[in-house]
Write a structure and sequence with these properties.
The chain has 191 residues and is mostly helical. It contains eleven helices and no strands. The protein has one domain. Helix content is 72%, strand content 0%. Helix 4 packs parallel to helix 9, helix 5 crosses helix 6 and helix 8 crosses helix 9.
């Protein structure tokens, strides 16, 4: 394994950064905040990044064993970016490590919860996914705020788009997300 990393002409981190940048760009899509109600806050943006990261990691794991190294590198890039972001927001050196550790624990819990909810969709529908979204993506909002059904539909569209992409393309750092499903206008939703 170490020899592969030493002599690999394209280290996995070279593919991980471009993937991560695409994930972050998608997580900044105004539709998530404006139409689905994800909070446009530090917490909400963290949740949006984590959600998209989970979808890509889940897809990479499907390419076992080829996608596992890149999945690991992608997680390392995420934690590196979280560390950098905390420092930019003014967190001191002593506090950064503890905060990143809490973020890592939160991320791992979300990864497990989202994967289980996505795996349960075929036999049981989107109810479990919507519950996980309510707890995480909308966790800082009142119970009735945010559109869990619309965000769940968005996630299903992204999952399908990722499943349709060739693993080789992903492992080379190329990733395409689906366009968000169109929001239903209020007037026609009541009609």
């Amino acid at each position: 394994m170490i020899w592969k990393r030493l002599f690999d002409p394209q280290p996995r981190s070279e593919q991980a950064w471009p993937l991560y940048e695409i994930i972050v760009a998608q997580a900044r899509n105004p539709v998530l905040y404006r139409d689905y109600g994800v909070p446009d806050s530090v917490d909400g943006r963290f949740e949006a990044i984590v959600l998209h990261l989970v979808l890509v990691l889940r897809r990479l794991k499907r390419d076992f064993p080829d996608g596992l190294d890149l999945a690991q590198a992608l997680q390392e890039v995420f934690f590196t970016d979280m560390d950098r972001s905390l420092r930019e927001m003014g967190a001191g050196d002593l506090g950064v490590g503890k905060r990143v550790r809490r973020m890592a624990e939160g991320f791992m819990g979300r990864l497990s919860a989202y994967e289980a909810a996505l795996d349960a969709i075929a036999p049981r529908g989107t109810g479990e996914l919507e519950t996980v979204l309510r707890r995480n993506a909308f966790g800082t909002l009142p119970a009735e705020a945010g559109d869990t059904a619309a965000l769940a539909a968005y996630i299903l569209a992204q999952t399908a788009a990722l499943e349709a992409q060739e693993g080789v393309e992903l492992r080379q750092g190329r990733l395409t997300f689906a366009a968000p499903p169109a929001a239903v206008p209020e007037a026609s939703a009541k009609g």
